[in-house]
Amino acid sequence: MIWGLLPVYFLMLPMISAFEFVAVRVVFSLVFCVLLLFITKQMRQFLAMFRDGKTVGQLALASALIAANWILYAVAVLTGHVLEASLGYFINPIVAILLGVVVLKEKLRTLQWVAVGFAAIAVVVLTVGLGRVPWISLGLAFSFGFYGLVKNKVGQSGTALGTLTMETLLLAPFSALFIGWLAAQQNSALAGAENFGVVLLLAASGIITAVPLLLFGGAARRLPLSTLGSLQFLAPLIQFILGLLAFGEQMPPERWIGFGLVWVAVLFVLADMLRAPKAGSLPEPKKLI
């Protein structure tokens, strides 16, 4: 629900570029995560992560991928392409399936192949209809797909909160420098904020970023894969409705056809999840954060 309603948050923001918003988001996310580390008494466990160079390197890659995903999403919403953003997150599970085949050498089941086929046809239809490749949708789908792949390789090297803190910490120096440069140019939304409410609204980006990621990390350890996968389609569905009703974006016939093909692919993915053999037993769930 939080991810689905995120475009509404953008409507309340002052004039801000996608790059500055992501920089602000990183800084305030780090502040929020560090506070949570102290509250939950995980600081010592977090600091121990620095001893594992391989994990830090993987999280550096993950931080670059999630930053690219955030920038693309901000560009999409701030330039009136909420529907393309929702399409990207509908496609994401299919991209995850493809990455499993190409990178992890997994074998696809029949319904998964059918879903990939429908998704590929949808991209072709949308490319022809729009007169261009839907790069925002594909960029969001692949950046988050690779992000999930890297986080999968990190595995149990740290808690959900610890790994998220590390990712934002690695991005924070670049974000702070960028915000400082904008302030020096007198072109920063933060510097131009004339009331405390606007500053609080921008600061809330840290909470809006961290909370759903932490909830997702906790849910992934507690729910069956079929349930988790089904719930993931709720966010792009809400974004799609917002794009039509709140942002007033147009849906020409070719876009309806493209979305329709993607939704058919989604149905095949869900059907495959329901038919897939269930795990015999689940490990003891870790703390949410």
Write a structural description.
The chain has 289 residues and is an all-alpha fold. The protein has one domain. It contains twelve helices and no strands. Helix 1 runs parallel beside helix 11 (234-245). The chain is globular. Residues 279-289 have low confidence and may be disordered.
List the helices and strands and how they pair.
Elements: H1 2-12, H2 18-39, H3 43-48, H4 53-78, H5 82-102, H6 110-130, H7 135-154, H8 160-184, H9 196-222, H10 225-232, H11 234-245, H12 253-275
Helix pairs in contact: 1-11, 2-4, 2-8, 2-9, 4-7, 4-8, 5-6, 5-7, 5-11, 5-12, 6-12
Largest sheet: none
Determine Rg (CA atoms, Å).
20 Å
Q: What is the residue-mean pLDDT, rounded to a whole number?
A: 82
Rounded to the nearest angstrom, the distance between the terminal CA atoms is: 19 Å
Quickly count the domains. Answer: 1
Please estimate the helix content.
over 70%
Number of strands: 0
**Secondary structural class:** mainly alpha
How do the SSEs run, as a string of H and E?
Answer: HHHHHHHHHHHH
User: Uncertain spans, ≥5 residues at pLDDT below 50?
Assistant: 279-289
Principal-axis shape equals: globular
Specify the number of helices: 12
Strand content: under 5%
Keywords:
single chain, 289 residues, mainly alpha, 77% helix, globular
How would you summarize this macromolecular structure in one to three sentences?
With 289 residues, this protein is an all-alpha fold. The protein contains 12 helices and no strands. It has helices at 2-12, 18-39, 43-48, 53-78, 82-102, 110-130, 135-154, 160-184, 196-222, 225-232, 234-245, 253-275.
